[in-house]
Amino acid sequence: MSIILDHVNYIYDEDTAMAHAALTDVNIKIDAGEFIGLIGHTGSGKSTLIQHMNGLVKPTSGTVYFDGKDISDPEFDRKALRAKVGLVFQYPEHQLFETDCFKDVCFGPKNLGLSQKEVELRAYEALKQVGFDDDYFYQSPFDLSGGQKRRVAIAGVLAMKPEILILDEPTAGLDPKGREDILGLIKKLHDEVGITIILVSHSMDDVADYVGRIIVMNKGKVVFDDVPKEVFRHRQELESIGLAAPQVTYVMQELKASGFDVDIDVTTLDEAKNEILRVFSK
Amino acid sequence: MLRDITLGQYYRTESIIHKLDPRVKIVGTFVFLVAIFMVNNAIGYAIAGLFLAMNIKLSNVPVRFIFRGMRSIFLLLMISVLFNLFLTPGDPMFTVWKIKVTKEGLKLAAKMAVRLVFLITGSSLMTLTTTPNNLTDGLESILKPLKLVHVPVHEISMMMSIALRFIPILLEETDKIMKAQMARCADFESGSIINRAKNMVPLLVPLFISAFRRAMDLAMAMEARCYRGGEGRTKMKPLVYHKEDKVAYVVLVLFLIICVAVGRMKF
């Protein structure tokens, strides 16, 4: 399983005065088992980019390959693609519609034409995977809290058993506790279930602890595509495009500037703690 | 697909038409509509068409953009043309199976098609070149005399402007919801009519919920800023006629006179 974007360009409202390029010459390769953070400021084209990956949007020019096959090909089974590349949109309100949560999660697998038994089995499994409380199974999804709604939305996509799960700002509008819960859940899906994850965010702090690779977008272009450590070295460039390195990076760089011999490449809170303890216990 | 709907949309660009007073444009659209129903011969339609083409040219709105909106009403157009074509009694030209096509029918159908296309193009040109706010101000000002007979003019125009403002928002929302459901393999395009209607439920439920939520938020925001209807409300930018507006009125009157004169001629 792999996704390749080859020289992908996308222009909105192509033949009007409002025409603007949303993506310019994007080349990305995504392999099975990766955990990727897709970072960019609002309007940098990250949402447009992920919609190319499951065929919701067709590139103006360039090609998207899934497992070596061109997804714009009329022969290509786009329905099957959408089951394999699960996309969870930012607002759960955009997809919840059923009278109870369980039925809502059944919607995806039912569209795949599975038997009723299989559909319900998958829905149950998915709701369990996202840590959804049994008590809420038959409640209206509209009565839930923001975090719970998001869980149902993720379960709704998980129930199709995707190989890749793309999440568009899954932590937007959540409190710190809810944020950590959702991110922990996503990490669990990657580590235990083995799903390839693409996490879209505008916050480095969200992704730094979890991902193995960061893709930074600015004005429709890929600016950086590397392991977190390398990306965070470009602190100035990140700031100039309205982003920032994680807070620990700043702390470490300040310490270094004040004359302490710390390793400035640490990216997570735990690493930073160990590093500081190491230096100060000398 | 949804982006094709240009109804009530504003197209941002610089032009003489954009700068005209909204009242001129509302009156102008009305005059144009009256004119195309008054003229009754080919020359009249040619003049109306020319007038419309001139306005489109002056407005700087790309022709392609205007006609993109036409696609969505194509079906309506076809139905009215076909009904006129086949169901008008008169001098038969030729017969296909049991259906007679008459000369009168052909004429009527052509006339209907031209009128409908002009009508829709003309009125969408008004909304394309006028911001919803301006449109409301203009409408309110024109309808002001009706206040004397206790018509809630301000409230009507406020509702209209909100409705216009919400069209693009709800279209965008529909687009997003559609994508979110398509990501879960929803199918909006194939199947029988009944199935397709059923498949709309996952789209309509979130859309209605969101529309209600937005309406409530808006009501709250208006209340928070002490909105209490039109009584004693002043404008930050009152409408004032400029020289161009007066010229436009003269052009409109000329256009109407020509149309009436030509429309009455018999050939």
UniProtKB/TrEMBL annotation, chain A:
One of its GO terms (cellular component) is ATP-binding cassette (ABC) transporter complex. Its EC number is 7.-.-.-. The keyword Acetylation does not apply. PROSITE patterns: ABC_TRANSPORTER_1, ABC_TRANSPORTER_2. It is found in: Cell membrane. Its main location: membrane. InterPro entries: AAA+_ATPase (IPR003593), ABC_transporter-like_ATP-bd (IPR003439), ABC_transporter-like_CS (IPR017871), ABC_transpr_CbiO/EcfA_su (IPR015856), ECF_ABC_transporter_ATP-bd (IPR050095), EcfA2 (IPR030946), P-loop_NTPase (IPR027417). It comes from the Bacteria. Forms a stable energy-coupling factor (ECF) transporter complex composed of 2 membrane-embedded substrate-binding proteins (S component), 2 ATP-binding proteins (A component) and 2 transmembrane proteins (T component). Belongs to the ABC transporter superfamily. Energy-coupling factor EcfA family. This is Energy-coupling factor transporter ATP-binding protein EcfA2. It comes from Butyrivibrio hungatei.
TrEMBL record, chain B:
It comes from the Bacteria. The chain crosses the membrane at residues 26-53, 65-87, 108-128, 247-265. Pfam families: CbiQ. It is a multi-pass membrane protein. GO terms for cellular component: plasma membrane. InterPro entries: ABC/ECF_trnsptr_transmembrane, ECF_transporter_component. It is found in: Membrane. Its main location: membrane. CDD domains: EcfT. Keywords: Cell membrane, Membrane, Transmembrane, Transmembrane helix. PANTHER family: SLL0384 PROTEIN (PTHR34857:SF2). This is Energy-coupling factor transport system permease protein.
